[in-house]
Amino acid sequence: MSVKIYEGEDLDALIERAKEELGDVEILYYEVEKIPGIIPFLKKRRYRLFVTKKEKREEKEREVEKLEEELKEVKELLLTLKENVSKLPSQQPVPIPSVPEHLEDKAPCSIPQIDEFTGDAVELINILVKKGVEPDIAVELVKVSCGLDIEAEKLDLNTNTFKEALINAFEEKLSFTGELKVEKGNQRIFAFVGPTGVGKTTNLFKLASKFVIEQELKVGVISTDTFKVGGTQQARIYASILNVPFYVATDQKKLKEIVENLKDLDVILIDTVGRSHYDYFRLGEIKATLSILGTSIEYVLLISCNYDTKEAIEVVNRYRSFFPVDFLLFTKIDESSKPGVMVNVGVKSGLPLSYVSTGQRVPEDIKLLTPTVIADILLGG
Predict the structure, then answer these.
(1) Strand locations in 9-108, DSSP E?
(2) How far apart are CA 336 and CA 34, in angstroms?
(3) Is residue 49 within 8 Å of residue 11, measured between CB atoms?
(4) Which end of the chain is more exposed for a tag (fewer CB within 10 A), N or C?
(5) Is 152 helix (H, G, I), strand (E, B) or coil?
């Protein structure tokens, strides 16, 4: 909101002047200062008038109304899901849009030890590399399900399908959280951290909906993000739809006070401000704020599938230097043609994989990561 200040000795004249310059205005408040004159008991009045254009305020209200209208459909869907949760599909493959052939990366890639393999094993390695899995990791994954082809004296798959081979590999090489289960009365606190723009707020509420609908838990949300324009308003609307309490913690003391007042809840989800993994000072601020809660927090690091592997690993390493990251949540898989970054980061970091965001819709566009799901994503199933 843009505020303009007018000063003078005639309040009515100041108001008229503001209207002439700005049009329709809203008077926020005014200050009066008494200035001594020649005669001691007669003092002049000097006014300071604070105004803003009404159209700006109304425009903001219209934006909020528009957002509320857009989220009406989400509310209706949420109610429908709550009534039919038992009918929801559990293990359907995640649909991944195919990449047009002319956009696929056809640059030759050097694959180490490729000469050790033959037949289907070579084909599967090439599929993985094309999907963004690093060549050396692709080789190690495929090797899990290989045996010696005596005739060729090379390694080939000993499974009936590529999918079966990948499931075996992911079970051995990757770690998974499984569905996040919370026992009623045994409170868990999750803090969502990650760079700007990875989708922390949206995916926090996707998980909140799973706790509320599928496990019928008492959930509360706390935001420490007071920087993102409109972020708090969006979070309040989501919280209202889910009928969960929502709070804003502006500092360490306020955060501790809120958490202590929410001891009767099963789950507390903390949304943090997005910060670049190169901004050590700001990451230190987030750490200082959350440190008041000690070791009771479980840290969820969000990684965008739009990152290349080198940058994603950099994000993980730098965030781990500030926070004891418990597991990873991947976002924007629907915007990436190289979903293999999930496998690369999972193998290199050793951190458990939890969920993947498959779109913008709340609450449905989130999928539990399992060996089968990742295999479907990489094979385009």
Answers:
(1) 25-36, 43-53
(2) 65
(3) yes
(4) N
(5) coil
* β-bridge pairing 219-223 and 246-248: parallel
Q: Hey, is 223 helix, strand or coil? A: strand
Model confidence over 217-252: pLDDT tens digits? 999 999 987 665 555 777 888 888 889 999 999 888
> CA nearest 350: which of 113, 223, 173?
173
The position carrying tokens 């976002």 is 331
Neighbours of 315 (CB within 10 A): 21
Question: What is the Cα–Cα distance from 221 to 267, expressed in whole angstroms?
Answer: 9
Tokens 């803003």, located at residue = 52
pLDDT band at 93, cuts 50/70/90?
very low
- pLDDT tens for residues 161-201? 999 999 999 999 999 999 999 998 899 999 999 998 899 99
- Rounded Cα–Cα distance for residues 105 and 42 (Å): 84
The answer to whether the beta carbons of residues 146 and 323 sit under 8 Å apart is no
